[in-house]
Amino acid sequence: MTGPTPPPASTPANAPVDAPGGGSSKGYLASTVKHGLVYFLGNVLGRIAGFIMLPVYTRLLTAADYGILEILALSTDVLGMLAGLGIQQAVIRFYYQYTSDEDRGAVVSTAAIIMWTMYGVIAIVGLTFSTRIAEVLLGPGDLAHFVQLAVVAFAVGAIGDVPGVYFQAKQDSRTSVTASFARLVLALSLNILFVVVLRMGVAGIFLSTIISSVVVGGFMAVWVMRRTGIRFVPRIARELVGFGSPLIFSQIGSFALHFSDRYFLRHFQTLAVVGLYSLSYKFAMLLAMFVTGPFHTIWNPKALEIDVREGPRAPEILRSILKQYNLVLVTTALGIALFATDVIHIVLGQDFHAADRAVPLLTLGIVFFCYRPISQTGAMIAKRPGYIGSITSFAAVLALVMNLLFIPRWGAMGAAASTAISFGIEFLMMLAMSERVYRIGITVRELFAPLLVAAAVWAATVLVVPADASPVTGLAVRIAAVGVYALVLSATGILTPAAWRMLLRSARDPRAMLKALRSA
Q1: Cα maximum dimension of the chain
Q2: Is the distance from CB of 492 to CB of 449 less than 8 angstroms?
Q3: Positive or negative CA dihedral for 494, 42, 112, 230?
Q4: For tag attachment on the chain, is the N or C end more exposed, with fewer CB atoms within 10 Å?
């Protein structure tokens, strides 16, 4: 079987690309916002569904149950990184390298065959040694059946992974979100049946994941493979694995940065502490879910499109969009840090109220994590994934050392401190390295300006509101703090008059804004 035709050595700046685009900074920004909003709405629906069920789960499951779910979910995530070989990121990169539908279809189908094979092999090994794995991860007790369910959920979850990346590469945000929403609705319905009605606990959550992955992921896989064809092209396989393999180190390092603290907490504390800390982390990760997740999903293909179409003008356009992203990111982070306690105390059961303590510090760490679309863009465009892997690996080792030092002494707060410091160092190193291979020109100073304002407003709010203040008083002060933050941004010029006018126009006439985005 012959391989695909390589792309020309250089592509004219005005060459057509199979993706929507602008041609100007405003056009690309509008297109990015349009697709980002679709992904955002999908995430919002998912988070709303999750929050609706959270009071139910926290009354039907124990903190130890949450600890079991967290440890097993994280462990299968590690397996996914090893099995995936960085293929998902590589699909997007090489989808834009080739130009014909046939070659792009070969990229997708080759990636699917590699991933499904790897996931199947690892699942067989996991099922074979499930009893021993349960003893190591969860401690003594008859818990092997949970490991078996988690491994099966891991394997069938891969069915829809490559189809999902295919929609992302095509910048088909509507289809991607529709499929994700269908899977969410089915999983949520089954959770209600298995956990609430049948009282199956942790096992019910795994079963709902398995069934929804098979039904929705299977449909997606069939739908995509009928359009791309099923082809395995050795040349493309080598390219995908060659580009993606270095990213395994980035993924494993990222995992260690995010989640290694759970294993230290499990060792030095209890599964209940792991469960509480995991809930704290979920609130901080709302920042990634609502802002970075939607943005990053469209940003990689959009950044590559801008680089191909705009040539020398690309860095200026990229920098403009990333500055707007930073402002939205920091503002959302401030909202989470200010209002997490109110939400946790209203939504969760009494036994879970202590989860609010680590949220502000964790949110700072997640801000640094959410800077990855900024710090890694240059390296991805320049095809230097090795830089990403090496820097993330260094930060991961640093996180492991700090977890070992901080968690025995300070528990969950030590874990949160380790997260914030590690992600901060990773960001600074990655930005410096990425700018060397592809200069966008965005500086730490302009990124940190709104972050420092937000941190000052949060700290002042904590000092103003006494510990014995009523919930109403505290809420009123925090709402006022948001207004102060906006005024400071305006007074310092961080939020420009032009940006204010755009926000006001959008508020007065949201239909016009949506119409403009749809036409972008």
Answers
A1: 74
A2: yes
A3: negative
A4: N
Element at 367 (helix H, strand E): helix 359-369
pLDDT tens across the length of the chain (520 residues)? 333 333 333 333 333 333 334 444 555 666 666 555 555 565 566 566 666 666 677 778 877 787 788 788 878 877 776 766 667 777 777 777 777 888 888 888 888 888 888 888 888 998 999 888 888 888 777 788 899 999 999 888 888 877 777 877 777 767 777 887 888 889 888 988 998 888 888 899 889 989 998 998 889 889 888 888 888 888 888 888 887 777 677 777 777 887 788 889 888 888 788 888 888 888 898 888 888 877 877 787 788 888 888 888 899 989 988 988 899 899 999 999 999 888 888 777 677 777 888 999 999 999 999 998 899 888 888 878 778 878 888 998 999 999 999 999 999 999 999 999 999 999 999 999 989 999 998 889 989 999 999 999 999 998 988 767 777 888 899 999 999 998 999 888 887 776 666 656 655 554 544 444 444 4
First-to-last alpha carbon distance for the chain, in angstroms, is 40
Task: Write down the pTM of the prediction.
Answer: 0.64
Token pair 């946790």 is found at: 344
In whole angstroms, what is the distance from residue 44 CA to residue 38 CA? 10
Q: How far apart are CA 145 and CA 351, in angstroms?
A: 27
Q: Are 434 and 442 in contact (CB under 8 A)?
A: no
Tell me the torsion sign for CA atoms 193, 58, 56, 76. Answer: negative
Work out the angle at residue 399's Cα, subtended by the Cα atoms of residues 396 and 405, and round it to the nearest 5 degrees.
Answer: 150
- Which residues neighbour 280 within 8 Å (Cβ) at sequence distance 6 or greater? 355, 356, 357, 358, 359, 362, 412, 416
CA distance 83 to 97: 24
- Tokens representing 498 are 């032009």
What separation in angstroms does the CA of 213 have from each of 95, 111, 156?
25, 19, 6
| CA–CA gap between residue 512 and residue 126 (Å, rounded) | 53
Handedness of CA 244, 248, 249, 250 (dihedral sign): positive
Parse the chain into domains and list their residue ranges.
61-232
Say if residues 279 and 348 touch (Cβ distance below 8 Å).
Answer: yes
DSSP letters spanning 264-286: HHHHHS-HHHHHHHHHHHHHHTH
Closest CA to 233 of 88, 121, 111, 117: 111
Strands of 194-332, DSSP E: none
